[in-house]
Amino acid sequence: MQSRPDTPTPAARAQEVGAATPFLSDAEMLHICKPLTQPAAMIRYLKREGFNVKRRPDGWPLISRANYDAVMMGQAQPAAAGDTAQAGPNVQALLDRFRTTGAPYGNGTKEKKQPAGAT
């Protein structure tokens, strides 16, 4: 069964009767994150602000209306410290790896190369 082009979507129907959808709409997301427009940047911003953000299959952020209301009223718990950590290499683990193998690079399993010109 095909839907007719003039049939309103569930979100449009809910808006007509004044009911709120369970999740924030794209327009609401854009308004909250203005001037950000890239989904990844929006997600980073929203997480820093304390929202519980999920990623939709199309990459856009997904926030429940209940979580939005709780954060805006100051009732939501701040994000865990591990969630907001900066992304980057684990320098300490890399240094530990070099220290334990004793190799100048790699994992130390390669044999030493012959000097140039040696037969």
- Biggest β-sheet strands, sense, barrel: 2 strands, antiparallel
Overall mean pLDDT: 76
| Topology order in helix (H) and strand (E) letters | HHHEEHH
How many strand segments? 2
Please give the count of helices: 5
- Radius of gyration (CA) equals 26 Å
Distance between the termini: 79 Å
SSE class: mainly alpha
Oligomer: single chain
Helical content (DSSP H or I, runs of 4+): 25-40%
Q: What's the helix and strand layout?
A:
Layout: H1 10-16, H2 26-32, H3 39-48, E1 54-55, E2 61-62, H4 65-72, H5 91-101
Antiparallel strand pairs: 1-2
Essential attributes:
single chain; 119 residues; mainly alpha; two-stranded antiparallel ribbon
The gist of it:
With 119 residues, the chain is mainly alpha-helical.
How would you describe this protein?
With 119 residues, the protein is mostly helical. Helices cover 36% and strands 3% of the residues. It has five helices and two strands. The protein has a two-stranded antiparallel sheet with strand order 1-2. The model has no long low-confidence stretch (mean pLDDT 76).
